[in-house]
Amino acid sequence: MKTSIISLSLKAAAILLAALCAPAAQAKMSKALNDTASTGMNALDYVLQRPLGNQTFGTKHFGDHLFMSGGAGISAYGGAPTSGFRPGARGEFSIGDWVTPVHGWRVNLSAGAHSKKAGQPWKLFGSLSADYLMNFSALLRGYNPSRRVEVIGILGAEYQRVRCNGAWGNELGLRAAIQTRFNVQSNLYLYIEPRLALLAGTRFVGDGLRRFRPDFSFNLGMGYRLLSKAERMAASTPFLTDIDGHLFFGAGGGIWAFARKAASQYRHPYGFGSFFVGKYFTPTAGLRVKAEFGRIGKVPATGANRYLAMGGLDFVWNLNSAFGGYQPDQVFDMSFNFGPAIAYTNQAEAKFYPGAEASLTALFRVSPNWGIYIEPEAKIFTRKFNRQLNSGGYGPFLSVMAGLRYTFGNFKYDHADSYKEFLNANNHSLTFAVAPAKRWRGNYGKGFMAQAGFGGRFTPISSWRVTAEGELFSRSPNYVNLALGADYMFSISTSMAGFNPNRVFDLSGVIGVNGGVAHYKGGLNGLFGGHIGLHGAFRLSDALDLFIEPQLVGNTLLGKSSVGWTPEARVLVGLKYKLGAPTNPGSEGNTVPADTRNFVSIAGGPSFFSGTFFSAPRRVSGSLDASLGRWFTEVSGGRIGVAYDIISSARKNNRPHLTTLHADYMLNVTSLMDHNPGRRFHIIGILGAGIGFSDAKNAKSGLMLETGGQFRYNLPANIDIHIEPNVSFWANRVAPGYQTRAHFVCLGRVMAGLSYRF
Questions:
Q1: What's the pLDDT tens digit per position in 407-432?
Q2: pTM of the entire structure?
Q3: With b meaning 16 or more CB within 10 Å and e meaning fewer, what string describes 580-592?
């Protein structure tokens, strides 16, 4: 009877259970295989019947679900922390792939130091490990690439190479971890990973007698995962570019130190400044040039401060674009940079040290153009670098810097309408400016400079400018230079808001180089330098702008009398005269004038001879010039003439007379840029050569080179008046004894004259 009752009860329970499970089974059958996201987790699938198979990717190729990550952590090695505990630290880099949504693998490289007790030596290590990954979130809730949080289980093996007190050892073991990923965007995630490893191998001081030693670590990091091609294409923006598209500039500062001394210098680190310029040629690849300068300790022999300059050429790999497609509107952007580097210091034996550098740049965009960046970097140089600058130490040179970066977008794509305005605008200009100047190194006194330039835009954002400038400092011995410069200018206003020829204020950045001659403590010497600055132009009229241009300048003299690099600050104030569009070849702007092509002129004025003016007691000389010329077109002309210079000298009854026969080419810059037959004011560039001789003792004839500019105004009756500043150079043999230790002498003139056209 009992058996019958039990049998009936089991049958009733089976029927009830079947009734309850039938709807669920029917619902499950209507869903995709193992779709736990819709049906929920059912343990009966895995206990009372054959387990359902895991999900797989539709198509799978090696590396098509690649991910890479980097992080750092702290650790406790050998046991629980006790009195005097010093935590260990590590950095790591990993690369891996998902074989299915649930199963994956990764390979890891890491380095750091094990924890220890106070008084014990540090145990440094480098390690290689391989791990199996199981994505619990995908296993229990189904594959969902948009999921914000994922939990991943990890099992693996690890090998460590350990160094302690100069001795080397090996350790091998197993490890397990739980990683929690937070997906910031489709291709970027942050992770937290507590990890436990059991290691066995070489024993060092403090390791104890246990065969297996636990190593517990807590790690934080960031990683990228590769999206499928369809996902990358769907999220990408077209990458269109021209000459200056996708240029970027950055400036900032930070701290640097030798790796061996970094721990002892963290309270009093050495600072440096940095500037770089680069360009992306594809969404993922670009190049940049970087310069850094700062202090790096003292010279042991003298106690003087030691300064270090570094330069590098980096290949830039944009991780955002590589893993998720080109998306310039993303707030966070990261790139990996590596390339050759060179270091320079004038307080060491070698001076120049070649090497290599690698860094990560994390950029946080505050606008489409502006961003704040943080960049940790490591550099490796030749052994001499550490031996001569680091007291024989070892290891890389480390730095961390932060600053602002400015990026040009794709102008044609972002500002298509204003690009048409640029094509129809007058984009050439002449500039004239003066500036006070101050030098921080050396006792130069008050400085003054004057500058004339000519330039133009070659894209809506980018401009070029060539300049001629002179500079004078008051403190004896007076410093005087004459130089030519070449500048690249980029309009920040245009890149942000589009091209507008009627903009009231336009802000541009300036970077350039200059070279020439300078007189300081002796004869004439070559000059070389560079500068960066900002150019702010206020529109006064259609043809005229007022501009202010603060600059930071670095100059150095070439030759034995060089005192090294001299930093300088200037604030230029000047006028910009905007010219018309260039005249097309064959148009009426390039035709020969009907008459009045010939001219004769006479001019005179003060001059400044390098042998008697640049050193006390200074003497001002005088010059006369007579010329005959002809205009071949409205733009081009030539002249021949004779110049007579009376060189004032402190020596009594010894005033040499210098005669020069010259032939010059003349370029009417205003007619070149803007055809206007009724123009009265002309700006003319002059370049010429000749032969000069003097009545000085032991003088010989010598070659002369000349350059200058003429500002001419047409009066009625074919009469012109002009002012012509110019400078001429002769071989020193023309006036021997007036410029010692120099290969050539120069004469600057400011001539006022009268011309008659016939």
A1: 887 777 777 777 777 877 777 888 98
A2: 0.66
A3: bebbeeeeebbee
